[in-house]
Write a structure and sequence with these properties.
The protein is of the alpha/beta class. The protein has helices spanning about 15-30, 40-45, 55-80, 90-100, 125-130, and strands spanning about 5-10, 30-40, 80-90, 105-110, 135-140. About 35% of the residues are buried. The structure holds adenosine-5'-triphosphate (ATP) and manganese (II) ion. Adenosine-5'-triphosphate binds near residues 113, 116 and 125. Belongs to the universal stress protein A family.
């Protein structure tokens, strides 16, 4: 039923929890897990005047690679096949497009991420992905979620 599971990550605790669920499902279904970290294009253009957009983008890309590396390490420990991806763009656009282009049949992501206020039911990236994705989206919360 599930062959390609996509976990988008912003390196947050909630995304880590989503990885745990994605790995469990991947093990049961013998699926491949794709991990995608999106460098938010709006963060590139909003940088400090003294720093060039290219420098900001390269730092953000390094951070994003650190996030996907961490998930790859977890995959190696767990025996799950992980394909990493880093892209720049608007996160929900990049997530939905990646899913369409890679035959993804399930997206697993956190209810919240790094920046959100927990009084909202869902973070904006998750809300927009749920609205727009043509494949099911499994949302995972952490114990510390207040909502
Ligand atoms: P907001 O961003 O709206 O202030 P938030 O940070 O709490 O709130 P989201 O950004 O929607 O919430 O994060 C929810 C989930 O979306 C994360 O757990 C992660 O799975 C995914 N996600 C968020 N940002 C990115 C990103 N830049 N790249 C990949 N996945 C992301
Ligand atoms: Mn966020």
């Amino acid at each position: 039923m599930y062959d390609h599971i996509l976990v988008p990550t912003d390196g947050s605790e909630c995304a880590d929890e989503a990885v745990t669920h994605a790995f469990n499902l991947a093990t049961q279904h013998d699926a491949e897990v794709h991990v995608l970290s999106v460098v938010d294009a709006r963060d590139i253009s909003h940088g400090a005047p003294a720093v060039s957009p290219a420098q900001i983008e390269s730092t953000l890309r390094e951070n994003a690679h650190d996030m996907t590396d961490a998930v790859e390490d977890r995959g190696a420990d767990t025996g799950v096949n992980v394909t990493p991806a880093v892209e720049a763009g608007i996160p929900d656009d990049a997530i939905v497009t990646y899913a369409e282009e890679h035959d993804v049949d399930l997206i697993v992501m956190g209810t919240h991420g790094r920046t959100g206020l927990e009084r909202y039911l869902l973070g904006s990236v998750t809300e927009r992905t749920v609205r727009r994705s043509s494949v099911p989206v499994l949302t995972v919360r952490t114990d510390t979620d207040a909502a």
